[in-house]
Amino acid sequence: MEVMRILHMNKGNGETSYAKNSTAQSNIISQGRRVLDETLKKLMTSSSEISSFGIADLGCSSGPNSLLSISNIVDTIQNLCPDLHRPVPELRVSLNDLPSNDFNYIFASLPDFYDRLKKKENSNKAALGFQRGGGPCFVSAVPGSFYGRLFPRRSLHFVHSSSSLHWLSQVPCGEMNNEDGVVITTNLDNRGKIYISKTSPESAQKAYALQFQTDFSAFLRSRSEELVPGGRMVLSFLGRSSPDPTTEEACFQWEILAQALMSMANEGIIEEENIDAFNAPYYAASSEELKIAIEKEGSFSIDRLDISPVDWEGESISEKSYDIVRSKSESLASGRRVAKTIRAVVEPMLEPTFGQNVMDELFERYAKIVGEYLYVSSPRYALIIVSLVRMS
Ligand SMILES: C[S@@+](CC[C@H](N)C(=O)[O-])C[C@H]1O[C@@H](n2cnc3c(N)ncnc32)[C@H](O)[C@@H]1O
C-alpha cells in the first residue's frame, strides 16, 4: 500500500468531507493554543529582531482547520510584537501536506483569510489610534512528505503540526529468514486486525515501533536543517500514556473498525483475507519513545512535553467529566459523530482494499458499535503536545 497515494482526507466540502467533519481536530488545535502562544513568546523574546519570519504548518489538510492554526500563529505574533516594542515582521507562511491533499480548497479560502487579517488590522487601528498587528503575510503551499526535506536550509523560525504525526510514512513490514537464511521483509502477520491489538504477534508491535523511530528521526533530521538555530516547533498528535501499545487509549478505535469489518466478512460482504492484509499506517507513540528519538537525533531539546486525555470527539477530559453518564440516545449520536470524523480520515485508505461500494455500510456498523461502546465506557485518546527548540 503506497501511503503517499492513499493517505489524504476526504476532499471537497460534501457530507463525508474532512472539511465538514473535523471538529475533533479543531478541538485539539484549541487545546494546543496555550503551548503555542507560550512557545512563540519564548521564540520572539530570545531572538533579536527578525525581519522575515518563516512559519510552516505540516499536515495542514483541507478545510477550516487548514487556516485555523495559521490564523492563531499570525494573531499571536502580531499581538506580541507591540508588547516587545518591535515592528511586526513580514510572515512567510507555508502550508504543507502530501501531494494528494485538496490544496485547491485552501487556495479558494485564502481571499477570506487575507480579508480577515486586513479587517483586524483596521479595527485595531480605529480602536487604539495606532497600528497594532498588520505586516505583510505571504501564504504558499508546499506539497510533499514531512518525513523528508521540504524547505531551504535555515529558512524557518517556527514549525507547527497538529493531528498529523501519528501517520507513518509506510505500513511497517515484518522480517523473517527464508530457507537460505536471508532476511526478507513480509506483510505483518496480524490476522483479523488492522492495527496493533491484544492478539497481534509481538513481531507486529516491534515492526510498528521501529517504523515510528525511523520516521520520527527522519522528521527531526529534516526540520533540523530547515530551522534556524533557536527556532522552535510545537507538535501535537495522538499517542499513549502507557508503555503498552495495546491499551484502549492507544488502539481501540482501530479495534472497533476491525470488528465492523469482521462482521461484514462473516456475512460474505467483504473478504476476510483483505482484513488480514490491511494494516493502518498509524502509530500512537509513548512519551518514552518520543524522547528516545529526540535524544538520538540530537538537534532538538524538549522545552515542554504534555500528555492529556481527550475524548473521542477531541474534547479535553477533566477529572469531573469521567463521571458523566450519558443516555443511550446521546451515546448513539456521539457514535455517529465519531464515525463521521473517522470516515473523513480513513475512507481513502480503506477504499482500495475493500471497495468504495461498502463504505456506507461499514461506517453505519462502525457508528453503531462506537455508540454502544460509548454508552458503557468513556474511552479516550492520549494527546501529546511537545514543544522543541533547535539547538545552536
Ligand atoms: C487529520 S489531518 C490533520 C489536519 C490539520 N492539521 C488539522 O488539525 O485538522 C492529518 C493530515 O496529515 C497529513 N499527512 C500525513 N502524513 C503526512 C506526511 N508524511 N507528510 C505531509 N502530510 C502528511 C494527511 O494527509 C492529513 O491531511
UniProtKB/TrEMBL annotation:
<keyword id="KW-0949">S-adenosyl-L-methionine</keyword>
<keyword id="KW-0808">Transferase</keyword>
<protein>
    <recommendedName>
        <fullName>Jasmonate O-methyltransferase</fullName>
    </recommendedName>
</protein>
<dbReference type="InterPro" id="IPR029063">
    <property type="entry name" value="SAM-dependent_MTases_sf"/>
</dbReference>
<dbReference type="InterPro" id="IPR005299">
    <property type="entry name" value="MeTrfase_7"/>
</dbReference>
<dbReference type="InterPro" id="IPR042086">
    <property type="entry name" value="MeTrfase_capping"/>
</dbReference>
<keyword id="KW-0460">Magnesium</keyword>
<dbReference type="Pfam" id="PF03492">
    <property type="entry name" value="Methyltransf_7"/>
</dbReference>
<keyword id="KW-0489">Methyltransferase</keyword>
<keyword id="KW-0479">Metal-binding</keyword>
